[in-house]
Amino acid sequence: TELLESGCDAALFVGMHARAGVPDGVLNHTVSGREWTDLRFNDTLVGETGINAALCGHWGTPVLMVSGDEATCREATELLGAELVTVPVKRGLGRNSARQVPPARAREMIEAGAKRALGRLDAVEPSRLEPPVEITVDFTTTDLVEGYRGRAGVEATGPRRIVSRADDWWTAWRQFFL
After folding, report:
1. What separation in angstroms does the CA of 117 have from each of 50, 105, 108, 112, 156?
2. Number of neighbours of residue 5 by Cβ within 10 angstroms
3. pLDDT tens per residue, the chain (178 residues)?
4. Which candidate, 71, 60, 69, 53, places its Cα nearest to that of 12?
5. Please, are residues 153 and 175 in contact by the beta-carbon 8 Å criterion?
6. Contact between 86 and 55 (Cβ < 8 Å)
């Protein structure tokens, strides 16, 4: 987080994946593809794009571009808004297969998207969650919840669910993830 803490004009996400369970998301997952099924920030379902956008947003850095498959770009636009530059470089045919843009063309597309995004630094607001912040994690099995019992700010609210609550996203995240 050092770079974010010292100040960044923008973040560009390249090679992102859709959240767990998205049918056309290539290698879709949420943090751990084997342990986490759903992750929510204040009731909004998120994946790695949402996590990284919240991290950047905590320190006031907007995400201006996301590149990945079509499902990831769709998810990012829903989360961050229509002004976000997205660069889809593949179409998911399922979790483990895709039709991909040839690598040389994909690099050109990502470079053009980055230039377009950085030419519009004010196009997207930083992703900030309104306090109080609740981070909800649904796990695949009940035993995964046990390791979180007794942590300050974290509550087991179901057999496979924990909720971390705090006044800001970074505190809520660190209570259970770090």
Report:
1. 18, 18, 14, 9, 40
2. 10
3. 889 999 999 999 999 999 999 999 999 999 977 899 999 999 999 999 999 999 999 999 999 999 999 999 999 999 999 999 999 999 999 999 999 999 999 999 999 999 999 999 999 999 999 999 999 999 999 999 999 989 999 999 999 999 999 999 999 999 999 7
4. 53
5. yes
6. no
Residue with tokens 């519009």: 120
Alpha-carbon separation of residue 7 from 12, 57, 96, 120, 125 (angstroms): 15, 11, 37, 17, 15
Residue corresponding to tokens 């039709």: 99
Rounded to two decimals, what is the model's pTM? 0.94
